[in-house]
Amino acid sequence: MSFDPKWSNGNKRITIKLSGLKYNSDYSIKVDGKKLKGENGEKIDSKDISFSTAKTPADAIIKISFNISKDEKVGINKKLIISFDRAVELKDGGAIDKDNLKDFITLKSGSDEVVYSGVISDGGKKITLDPNLGYDGDYTLKIDGDKLKGENGEKVDTKDISFSTVKTPADASIKISFNL
Predict the structure, then answer these.
(1) Second label for 178, Cα 20 to 30 Å away, from 82, 102, 145, 148?
(2) Segment 26-46, tens digit of pLDDT
(3) Residue 128 burial class via C-beta count within 10 angstroms: exposed 0-12, middle 13-18, buried 19 and up
């Protein structure tokens, strides 16, 4: 097993990308706080975490997340982002591209299909949809994971989310967030 640590957030967060993990194996990561110190010399606690990998690629499930929340009221120009925790491809092994998104992604308003275009990025882990949404509409976005697989044969979760659009342009808001 090897890892590639990356510091972020002003050296307040470290992300470790592991490689060489084997299926049906147990692993642990230990951070020795005695070898680290805070910016002003503060002591850092030691931390251990243990985890196990799936027994086979077929037992692993790739999770899906969206950039919107369930029942969220969104503006009609909102781009919908679908994120997978690992790269995915079509179940038959073909690559995902803008021409085959409709094979596994449906966006509906009631029973009507909604027109959208899409862009695949981040090595097959992210799809950004630019849908043709209308005001005061109710929508359902569904990903059919049975038509996808991970690069190593992992299953892909099937997930859907319902949301609505704002009633008028005046109802749209711009969100500001702070990450302190």
Answers:
(1) 82
(2) 998 888 878 877 777 778 788
(3) middle
